[in-house]
Amino acid sequence: MSLWNRAQQLPPDDLRRVQGIYGEQFPIEVRHYLAGWIEDKMQQWNEIDPDNPSHSQYAQSLVSQLIQEIENKALSYANNEDLFLVRMRLDEAATSFRTRYLNSNPLGLVGIIRQCLNTEHNLVQQNESMLGGGVSHATNMVIEPCAEIEQELRILHERTRETANELRHLEQEQESFALQYHDCAKINAHLSHIQSQERTQQNREMEQSLRRRKELGEQQLAQKVSGLLQLRMALADKHKGTIDRLNSLQQRILDEELINWKRDQQMHGNGKPFNPNKLDQIQEWCEALAEIIWLNRHQIKECERHQTKIPIAPPGGVDMLPTLNSHITRLLSSLVTSTFIIEKQPPQVMKTNTRFTATVRLLVGGKLNVNMTPPQVRVSIISEAQANALLKNDQMNKGEQSGEILNNTGTMEYNQTSRQLSVSFRNMQLRKIKRAEKKGTESVMDEKFSLLFQSQFSVGGGELVFQVWTLSLPVVVIVHGNQEPHAWATVSWDNAFAEQGRIPFTVPEKVPWPQIADMLDTKFKAATGRGLTEDNLKFLAGKAFRNPQVQDFTNMMLSWSQFCKEPLSERNFTFWEWFFAVMKVTREHLRQQWNDGSIMGFVGRRQAEEMLKNSKSGTFLLRFSDSELGGVTIAWMYEDTTKACQRDVFMLQPFTSKAFAIRPLADVIADLNYLLYLYPNVPKDQAFGKYYTPLGEQQPTTNNGYVKPQLKTHVPGWSGDPMDSYPNTPQTMYGGMGGPPSVSSNPSDCVSTDQKPTLDSPLFDAANVLSDFS
């Protein structure tokens, strides 16, 4: 039964307390109608620390999902008149969460939700404990993440304590058997001596007494042997049961929890929120496993030692102990080799002769006292083919590598506070790379490498020696910055679509569009702070498939070639190059305006015209250029009041990062007097005023006596623009048309802009100064 269902069964007073913890900040309607989804995400609520700013992005992702779920739930009630008020409350909650928390304070909302759930949980637990039911543990199972793992570890610890007690009892029984066996041996020796003596009456009586004692002793010894066999078999059976449970739990932790963490780490390479602290929890579980395995292995070895001292053949002649020892040692080996992991991955796009870092950690190093003789770790770079051979043979040929890395060795260190055994490589540098021969259309940016981390150490005083290694995520090596976009295409495709257990580093050639859309959304949100809408993704699908007329791309497959190999129609760049450039210019220059929704961005030329044609004069929107990589163009509606019904939509020549480095977008918009309303009808000062460069930062004079010019964006030939009154300013370039041509006359035409210096200082003749700059 869910926590919310149990909360509704509380006594009236407690139920009122539950109702009292919900309010405007977290409406009870949201808790009620989304109870299942909220409790399914219980692990995520618990993993986020509201006081840790580094968890902000993780919290924002979760809050965004919550808002989407609320909106979906409200939409599902659209045709149900009885739930009209509920739908209104849900819509209000979604709006409130979006405006108050999503971008400004997601951790605040997570803190509120956690507090509500914890209070609710405590009330339910107290009530169920008073009733004497055994359900409070079930309640914990809802709240605590992976509580079944903790419970299984407690069971295994208890079983280990029990077998330790049984082993001590076996030792005592074996010592008792040894003493009794020694007594029987003395009786036999005495009896043999009497029998060799003269057959007197006294000797005959002595012999009879010794025979009776011998028979009794042998009966007792037989019982002891039987008891020892039963104890040994029972202990072996219990150890077998413990090993079976250890094996299942270890598979759960290593093959699910740790593999999921590694997958999340890989997706983080594409920008997906990631909670690295989950690794600390996994380490605690692995350390507990290591301790239990080591104790049980020691117990089994003790059983073998006792069996050697008193060799009693078991029924059927089958000795379980060697098999148990082999199994438990294999478990330990698997645990050690699987927990040698890369905590911080090296950069996946790696430039030669550039410093980079990485961190490797052994999760069970502290528990097994590996730190007593700190092991060295060596790093090398290997090719895809070499990685394949390594996985097949579990070892590398000595000296085999595909490049030269400087500062590639380090010694693991143990941190007493965090209990972590790790090594951080802070100054590695790839000096040389050996590339494979290319086939067909392959380029160096398609080639994947991996960093191989290797080490060797012993545990148990040198009893067991482990050779461990682990591979980094795929790495693409570049030598020049212009190779970066394609390299990131290779890495992004691999991160998003790599399948678990694959042959390195195979990826599908074609992927369903919804998966591509999710990857693009994740990357764009990580880079810019706000993700892509359904309309944005539909626009991108039309561009990627070279067919914007298609209405539903859900079942369509996009190939790797379409993604980043084949140029877009009538362009000399690919879909990925266009998207990457848009993402880059938004991250570097337009992040704030994108996040507050001032930039529409993903809209085509014709769609922009359709949107603006019925707007009032001066209405404009911002869109990403189709023809210029990383270009942003301003489309606006202009109505010439001097001519009847002369209305048209115009496009400014695209601005790029180079232009924005000279004059920010907001100041460009402020410069152009013809731009009045951000589509649909927001006054431009309201939308962009907060981003204008303050006047105090535009002083024309400097402390060194020089005049400091400032640039102003100007569209030549537009009557009424103050710049047109200056001497030497170019006159209209459009002849007698009275304004720039409509973009509809030629899709490739854009209105060009001049950026001119202006001076407002009364000490200078502005016209003359401007003429010098013209």
**Helical content, roughly?**
40-55%
Q: Name the CATH class of the largest domain.
A: Mainly Alpha
State the low-pLDDT regions, or none.
133-145, 719-750, 754-774
CATH superfamily of the largest domain: STAT transcription factor, all-alpha domain
Report the CATH topology name of the largest domain: Glutathione S-transferase Yfyf (Class Pi), Chain A, domain 2
Mean pLDDT: 83
Secondary structure class reads alpha+beta
Q: What's the helix count?
A: 25
Please tell me the CATH architecture of the largest domain by its name.
Answer: Up-down Bundle
The share of residues in extended strands comes to: 5-15%
- How many discrete domains? 4
Total E-strand runs:
20
Tell me the span between the first and last alpha carbons.
77 Å
Radius of gyration: 38 Å
Biggest sheet features: 5 strands, antiparallel
Shape: elongated
Mind explaining what this structure looks like?
This is Signal transducer and activator of transcription. One of its GO terms (molecular function) is DNA-binding transcription factor activity. InterPro entries: p53-like_TF_DNA-bd_sf, SH2, SH2_dom_sf, STAT, STAT5_CC, STAT5a/5b_DBD, STAT_linker, STAT_N_sf. The chain is an alpha+beta fold. The protein has four domains: 3-130, Orthogonal Bundle (Transcription Factor, Stat-4), CATH 1.10.532.10; 145-333, STAT transcription factor, all-alpha domain (Glutathione S-transferase Yfyf (Class Pi), Chain A, domain 2); 345-435 and 442-479, Immunoglobulin-like (Sandwich), CATH 2.60.40; 523-550 and 560-691, SH2 domain (SHC Adaptor Protein, 2-Layer Sandwich). Helix content is 49%, strand content 14%. The chain contains 25 helices and 20 strands. Strands 1, 3, 5, 7 and 8 form a five-stranded antiparallel β-sheet that branches. Strand 15 (632-640) and strand 16 form a beta hairpin. Helix 10 (147-195) packs parallel to helix 12 (278-309). The protein is elongated and about 155 Å long. Mean pLDDT is 83; it is low at 133-145, 719-750 and 754-774.
